[in-house]
Design brief:
- This protein is mainly alpha-helical.
- 50% of the residues lie in helices and 7% in strands.
- Among the domains are: 4-83, no CATH class; 178-252, Arc Repressor Mutant, subunit A.
- It is built from 9 helices and 5 strands.
- The protein has a 3-stranded antiparallel sheet with strand order 3-5-4. Strands 1-2 form a two-stranded antiparallel ribbon.
- A hairpin with a 6-residue loop joins strand 4 and strand 5.
- Helix 7 (178-192) packs across helix 9 (207-223).
- The two termini are 78 Å apart.
Length: 258
């Protein structure tokens, strides 16, 4: 909403009034703010459409600014000076502050050089050198090397090297799975009843077979088909088969890889 205000020295939108006072084209002392507020209230009373909060907020903001500016003009003190006079000397002060900071940097560098000089004063240079007549002759690295040998060395250096291939045809991989071992133990353990793990793996030759048997026992224990016990620390692990009505569910056996 563009609110028009009428005063003895101005008539027009209130936004323009604020701009003229800010640019010192009008003196805020000559503006009666009470009449400005009364005119705004009368305008709101005569409006037929609904009242918008943004319009009231905008007028309150402008009114607060005008009230503050007029209070500063009427009250005595440091605000009697022109606003432009408050900024006099700011540029010179900024330049002085920059120079002080620059001088502090140079002073820090000077202190660092003094510390270096004091450290160097505590060291002593080596005064004695090589004996007279002592000549150091570096070896000739190309002595006895012909241009043809040098060219052959260059060709050997730029030729493509064969990619190393690791052949595993001689390596035998034991295909032992936990699921298969679970089935084998489910057939053996009911016949053995109670047996130690040492007796159970007797006859196995490779480490992978022993590990797979141990994992298979853990799977059977998890499924509730065997009980594991150890009478003493580092003693033999006793394996006992537990009879159950339901059969072995291989779908619940975890798959181990690697």
């Amino acid at each position: 909403m563009t609110y028009v205000v009428t005063t003895p020295s101005f008539s027009g939108p209130v936004e323009v009034l604020l701009q003229l006072i800010s640019s010192h084209e009008l003196d805020v002392v000559d503006i009666p703010l009470a009449s400005v507020v009364d005119q705004f209230v009368d305008t709101l009373k005569n409006r037929r459409e609904s009242l918008e909060v943004e319009e009231i907020s905008e007028f309150l903001l402008i009114g607060a600014i005008l009230l503050e500016m007029k209070s500063q003009r009427l009250l005595p003190g440091r605000d009697d000076t022109e606003p432009d006079e408050e900024f006099i000397g700011w540029e010179e002060r900024d330049v002085l502050l920059a120079r002080l900071l620059e001088l502090r940097t140079y002073a820090g560098a000077a202190d660092a050089f003094v510390a270096y000089f004091e450290r160097a004063a505590r060291s002593y240079p080596r005064l004695s050198g090589l004996n007279e007549g002592f000549v150091v002759t570096p070896p000739d690295l190309l002595a006895g090397v012909s241009p043809a040998q040098l060219a052959q060395a260059y060709l050997r250096g730029i030729e493509e090297k064969p990619v190393p291939v690791v052949r595993l045809h001689h390596v035998t991989v034991d295909a032992v799975t936990v699921a298969e071992t679970v089935v084998v133990l489910a057939e053996r353990l009911p016949l053995l009843g109670r047996v130690s793990f040492r007796e159970l793996i007797r006859g196995l030759e490779t480490r992978i077979e022993i590990i797979v048997h141990f994992l298979a026992l853990l799977e059977l224990c998890k499924l509730g088909h065997v009980e594991l016990g150890q009478g003493e620390t580092f003693g033999d692990v006793e394996v006992t088969w537990v009879e159950q009505g339901e059969g072995l569910d291989l779908g619940r056996v975890d798959v181990y890889e690697g």
